[in-house]
Amino acid sequence: MIVAIIITLASIAIPNYGKSKRRATQKEALVNIKLIAAAERIYRLESGDYYDCNCTTASNCATSVTGCNSLLRLMLNTENWGYNVTTGGAAGSKTADISATAKSGNCTYSLSSADFDSKNYTTSSGCI
Questions:
Q1: CA dihedral of 60, 119, 94, 53, whole degrees rounded to 10
Q2: Per residue in 95-118, pLDDT tens?
Q3: Are 55 and 82 in contact (CB under 8 A)?
Q4: What global pTM score does this model have?
Q5: How many C-beta neighbours within 10 Å does residue 47 have?
Q6: Distance from C-alpha of 35 to C-alpha of 29, rounded to nearest angstrom
Q7: Does 85 have pLDDT greater than 90?
Q8: Residue extents of the structural domains in the chain
Q9: How many percent of the chain have pLDDT more than 70?
Q10: Which among 3, 18, 34, 61 counts the fewest CB atoms within 10 Å?
């Protein structure tokens, strides 16, 4: 009887744990996109434009040439997500698109510079 109760509780708890863990991991991406957006805004105030950078592995994230951590003075963790900032347009009036792509699964979040204030994210179908 007690074993049946434990099995029933475990069958409810284990799937909920996995879903909660995925939600927490996805919130990490949203928080980091907001952080990158804030850093890009500061960079734009200082230099006049947004900056292309990527952060898909710990080593390329830290490079002084293209790494977001180095260029934007951030400390992004690349264990669960890869981050990329692409810019377009003429010098002095560039736009920026930030994306976070899950290392496992097929979830991607995107945010364009036009939506930095509204936090109007684009979400792929693989996200919760």
A1: 0
A2: 999 999 999 888 899 999 988 888
A3: yes
A4: 0.83
A5: 9
A6: 10
A7: yes
A8: 2-123
A9: 99
A10: 3
